[in-house]
Every structure is written in C-alpha cells, then in structure tokens.
C-alpha cells in the first residue's frame, strides 16, 4: 500500500540498521560494563519483586561548572531485544522521575503512605527500556555546583547538556549503543524533545560514534506560541469555559506571538480564570478537582507557568491528583530511597527534591517561539505527535493549529483508532508525521488513559498506524 511505503520512506535508515543491531547484539549482550554495575539498583525501599533490572546515577555534563544530570533506567525484561525510550517531562523545571516514572509510563507507582511502591500494569517497559532523565541541572536530583546555573538556564543549555548526557551515558552503557533510540515527552518537553533530536542529528554528522536515533513522540506539546495560544483560547471558547465577550476580548487585545503579553491582555486572562473558569482542573477539565486540604503547597506543575502564558494562571488551580505529587515528594526525599537510587550522594544538594523547580521555571533564560522549523528539518525522522483531548492547557486545538502550518501531505486520512474495541481516539498520518488524539485523556495521557497510551507506544515503535479496529 502506498501509505506504508510513504511512511517507511522516512525510515529508510532505520530498516537498514536493524541488521547491524542484530549482529552486534550477540557480542555485547552478556557483558555489562564495570561502570554500569556501580549504578545498579538492587531494590528500592518497599518495592515489589520484579523480573527486570534498574540502574540510576549521575552523568557529569560539564566538569567546569560541575553540572551533573540524574537518570533512572528501568529496563524491559529482555532488554537486548527492545529499543531505548528516553522520557522527558516539561515545566520547564519538572522532573521525569516525579511524573513520567512515578505516575505515567514507569513500572512503579508510589502508595498513599509513601511507604512503598506498587506495579503499573501498563508500564511502557513491556515494550521498551525506559530512560528517565531529569534535565536540566536543577531539576529533581540533577544539580550544578555553580549555583548561578539555576538562574540562566533555558532551551539552549538544556539541549546541549542533554546531548552531552546521552553521549556519555552510552559510554557507560555500551551495550545500548546499537539499540534503536526514541525520544518521548510531553508538555514543555515539546521543546526539549525536538531540540535534543536536532542536536543529535547534528552531532551524528560530525562523529563516527553515532547515536542511533529513530524518531520522537511528544504529547500535548508546547509547539508554537502564536498557534498554541490561539488554539488554547479557541478550546476554552468551544468547551464553554469562557464567554463570547471574553473570547473576543482575548482575540482583540492579545498578541499571541509575544513572550510577554500586555497588561490589558493579561487582565482579560485573569478575568477568564478568576470569574469564568471556576474551580476546575485545567489539565483535565472533566475531572473532579482535589480538595484544598489535600493539595500540596510546594511548587508543582499546577502552579508553574508555561513561558508564553501570564505568570499566575495556574496558581489558584488544583490538580487532578496533586496528592500523587505529594507522595513522590515524601518518597524521593527519604534518605533510604536516595541511597538506593545513588542520588544526592554526600547530601550535597542544598535544597529538597521537588517535583518541579520553581527557581528554574521563574528564571528560564531562553525559549524558542516556535518549534515548527525543527519539525520541518526533522520530519524524516519518524516523528509522531500524540495529544489528549480534554486538556485545556496545551489542548488539541493548539496542536492542530500549529501542525496545520506544516502543510504536510496526508498519507492516511483521518480515522478513529481502537483499543479494546472502543474508539481510543482519532489519528491522521502525514508524510513523516503521525497525529493521534487520545479520547478523554487529560494533559498527562498515560496517567488518564494508560492502556491507550501503551498502544500508542507499541504502534509507534513498530512504525505502524494505530489499529483500525
Ligand atoms: C560538585 O562538588 C562536589 C564537592 O566538591 C564534588 O564532589 C562533585 O564531584 C562536584 N560535581 C561535579 C559534577 O563536578
Ligand atoms: C473532599 O473532602 C470531603 C470531606 O473530607 C470528602 O467527603 C470528599 O469526598 C472529598 N472530595 C474529593 C474529591 O476527594
Ligand atoms: C540532599 O541531602 C541533604 C542532606 O541529607 C538534604 O538536606 C537535601 O534535602 C537533599 N536534597 C535533595 C535534592 O534530595
Ligand atoms: C540566554 O539567552 C540569550 C538570548 O536568547 C542567549 O544568547 C544566551 O546564550 C543564553 N544563556 C545561556 C546560559 O544559555
């Protein structure tokens, strides 16, 4: 079928290297490097017995500044036959250990008492080895000995440090060098993931020691200031969250291309939030908000802002389950947990582990206005976009407005895709890019729709369209 060929044409390098991959496996399979052994996790406190292996620790990305990034690898049961999936959360400033690993795609969930872990039935490590990276320095356990680094990091340094991390991590885990690698993430990682992919592609042109990147997948991704904001305001209006009057005022007073909106525009935003939204969860507008008393008061993504939105938009809102973040903040601050994870070695990090760093978020130095030019550049790398459709923070309309700018040819027209004989969402395949929604999912797709999200991963790494029945 034409569409199959079309899709594969962007993946030619992938098919060619599969053979290399198989041949090398036999040699490297059994040998674990000495260095990686030091990072092996024997067991986390309160962890159920599992059949897969885990590693975690630090990789220095700048000797001069003393910056080191923290990672946590949860392998598949048969790691050698599965690809490596790198997962990044957004914020900016939020931790992949807090969100991706502990409430979305990772194998463990933290119990209410933060006394232990239980298994996630739909963990992505069924199909892939999962590498959770806390980036940039200042996020979670990742740190810098140069404290000013927390005040001037932005998109640029995040991309460069993350590349440096991957290159050095591969030296520590040489058995992964020939694995297929996919980058995934959500929200503000809509910047990190394509930017890191571009760094890798450029790096690969200059080295023999290539990183075997095969594609990337982003969910509810911050993509383009103008079209994201336009799409968001339209989502609010079309989901009856704001009045016609507020909608028109936003459209007339805001210049969605700007990083910093005018006071007039911001005051319309505040009116919408304070007077019209009500106490809903913007990250999943149909979910019941959590009780105030249960909610955490520390910095979480709930009270963080995306750089192109007015600051305090998220301040007054309560999350779907802020309590989940609270369990994480108790669990990962336990000294026995940190010891088991090889994190915060000599207690040198002078502040607590938090799900999101408000310091980084507030001082974010540079942010791209649009990621679309990177999409254009990398469209051949097997990109797939995934979007949950009841999120009002980075909603499906934002992604559709942004992607429409790419003017891609359709290879598989719009269709409903299925999981468990139910419509899981809708998908359309373009030349070099797949768009898919997850019906009824909030901002963190794998949290709200874990089974559908696992199907996305499976189709994505197989390079197949989502199932039609
Ligand atoms: C940061 O400083 C501590 C204490 O001097 C040192 O042990 C550690 O190796 C430094 N970290 C990096 C990444 O250089
Ligand atoms: C909020 O707290 C009240 C009183 O403790 C309880 O009855 C109710 O179920 C709680 N609501 C939610 C959404 O947890
Ligand atoms: C690192 O350890 C010190 C000493 O135990 C503790 O005070 C600090 O909160 C920890 N920081 C992080 C990020 O875990
Ligand atoms: C901060 O942003 C400016 C302007 O975008 C850029 O030139 C500079 O390199 C950035 N600083 C760092 C430390 O990345």
Helices and strands in order, then pairings?
Layout lengths: L1 H8 L2 H17 L5 H5 L15 E9 L4 E8 L9 E5 L8 H8 L3 E3 L6 E3 L9 E6 L8 E2 L10 H18 L8 E6 L2 H17 L7 E7 L5 H14 L5 H10 L9 H15 L44 H10 L3 H7 L16 H5 L9 H7 L4 E6 L7 H9 L5 E10 L2 E9 L2 E6 L6 H4 L1 H13 L7
Parallel strand pairs: 3-6, 3-8, 8-9, 9-10, 10-13
Antiparallel strand pairs: 1-2, 2-6, 2-7, 4-5, 11-12, 12-13
Helix pairs in contact: 4-10, 5-6, 6-13, 7-8, 7-14, 8-9
The structure holds 2-acetamido-2-deoxy-beta-D-glucopyranose (4 copies).
Query: What is the name of the CATH topology of the largest domain?
Result: Rossmann fold
Number of domains: 2
- Total beta strands: 13
Which architecture of the largest domain does the CATH hierarchy give at level 2? 3-Layer(aba) Sandwich
Q: In this structure, how is the largest beta sheet organized?
A: 11 strands, mixed
Bound ligands, each once:
2-acetamido-2-deoxy-beta-D-glucopyranose
- Structure class: alpha/beta
The low-confidence parts are 1-30, 292-320
Keywords: Carboxypeptidase, Disulfide bond, Glycoprotein, Hydrolase, Protease, Secreted, Signal
EC number: 3.4.16.-
Subcellular location: Secreted
Protein name: Carboxypeptidase
């Amino acid at each position: 079928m034409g569409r199959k060929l079309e899709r594969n044409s962007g993946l030619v390098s992938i098919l060619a290297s599969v053979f290399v991959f198989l041949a090398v496996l036999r040699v490297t399979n059994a040998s674990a490097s000495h260095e990686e052994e030091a990072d092996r996790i024997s067991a986390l406190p309160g962890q159920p017995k599992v059949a897969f292996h885990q590693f975690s620790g630090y990789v220095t990305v700048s000797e001069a500044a003393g910056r080191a990034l923290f990672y946590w690898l949860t392998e598949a049961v048969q790691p050698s036959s599965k690809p490596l999936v790198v997962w990044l959360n957004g914020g900016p400033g939020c931790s992949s250990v807090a969100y991706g690993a502990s409430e979305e795609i990772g194998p463990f969930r933290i119990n209410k008492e933060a006394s232990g872990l239980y298994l996630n039935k739909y963990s992505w490590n069924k199909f892939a080895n999962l590498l959770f990276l806390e980036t940039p320095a200042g996020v979670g356990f990742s740190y810098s000995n140069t404290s000013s680094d927390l005040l001037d990091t932005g998109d640029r340094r995040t991309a460069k440090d993350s590349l440096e991390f991957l290159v050095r991590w591969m030296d520590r885990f040489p058995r992964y060098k020939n694995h297929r690698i996919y980058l995934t993430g959500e929200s503000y990682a809509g910047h990190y993931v394509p930017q890191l992919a571009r760094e890798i592609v450029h790096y690969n042109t200059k080295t023999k020691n290539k990183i075997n990147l095969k594609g990337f997948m982003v969910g509810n991704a911050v993509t383009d200031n103008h079209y994201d904001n336009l799409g968001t305001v339209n989502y609010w209006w079309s989901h009856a969250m704001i009045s016609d009057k507020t909608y028109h005022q936003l459209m007339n007073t805001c210049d969605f291309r700007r990083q910093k909106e005018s006071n007039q525009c911001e005051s319309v935003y505040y009116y919408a939030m304070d007077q019209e939204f009500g106490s809903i969860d913007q990250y999943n507008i149909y979910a019941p908000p959590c009780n105030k008393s249960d909610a955490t008061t520390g910095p979480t993504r709930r009270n963080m802002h995306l750089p192109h939105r007015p600051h305090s938009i998220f301040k007054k809102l309560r999350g779907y389950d802020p309590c989940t973040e609270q369990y994480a903040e108790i669990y990962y601050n336990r000294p026995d947990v940190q010891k088991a994870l090889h994190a915060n070695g000599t207690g040198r990090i002078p502040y607590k582990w938090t799900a999101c760093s408000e310091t980084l978020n507030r001082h974010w130095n540079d942010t791209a206005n649009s990621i679309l030019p990177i999409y254009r550049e990398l469209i051949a790398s097997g990109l797939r976009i995934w979007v949950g459709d009841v999120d009002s923070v980075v909603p499906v309309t934002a992604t559709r407005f942004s992607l429409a700018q790419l003017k891609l040819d359709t290879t598989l027209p719009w269709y409903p895709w299925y999981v468990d004989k139910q419509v899981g969402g809708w998908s359309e395949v373009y030349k070099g890019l797949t768009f898919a929604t997850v019906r009824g999912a909030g901002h963190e797709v794998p949290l709200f729709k874990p089974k559908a999200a696992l199907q996305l991963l499976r189709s994505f790494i197989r390079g197949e369209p989502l199932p039609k029945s």
